[in-house]
Amino acid sequence: MFPKLILGGCYEDARGTIKYNNRFNASEIKRFYLIENKSLRFVRAWQGHKIEQRWFLVSKGSFKIQLIAIDNWEHPSKNLIPDTFFLNENQFDILHVPSGYVSSIQVLERESKLIVMANYLLGEINDEYRYDVTYFNI
């Protein structure tokens, strides 16, 4: 399975604005949390899951998210190529990250907020992998 951008939309009239994502099926979601990086220079990388899936939704600001499909969880190739996505608050797009990927998350605007949804409860499985921010030759 590959990462997929689930396109949202926005409707505006005299009453205000409604942002929506009618294509997103939330039936697999068991928990969610919010990420707010304090610095524009800080990159939250590389963390991922062999089994667990994630969905990313920007509630404020904008983010650059890079995803790498891992070839070997114990010793991944350092030359793996990331897929890069830019998400912002103007659309209600949701980025689906299937199992088997690590991510790099960087804010592009101050006070940006990213909602992360997961299909496992915290502690339900032991499935967290982390690599140093400089591990991959990007």
Detailed description of the structure:
By secondary structure, the chain is mainly β. The protein has a single domain (4-130), classed as Jelly Rolls (Sandwich), CATH 2.60.120. 0% of the residues lie in helices and 46% in strands. The chain is built from no helices and 12 strands. It has strands at 4-6, 9-13, 16-20, 31-35, 44-49, 54-60, 62-69, 83-88, 94-97, 101-107, 113-118, 129-130. The strands form 3 sheets. Strands 1-9-6-11-4 form a 5-stranded antiparallel beta sheet, with no helix packed on it. The protein has a 5-stranded antiparallel beta sheet with strand order 8-7-10-5-12, with no helix packed on it. A hairpin with a 2-residue loop joins strand 2 (9-13) and strand 3. The radius of gyration is 15 Å and the shape is globular. The protein starts with a strand and ends in an 8-residue tail after the last strand. The model has no long low-confidence stretch (mean pLDDT 96).
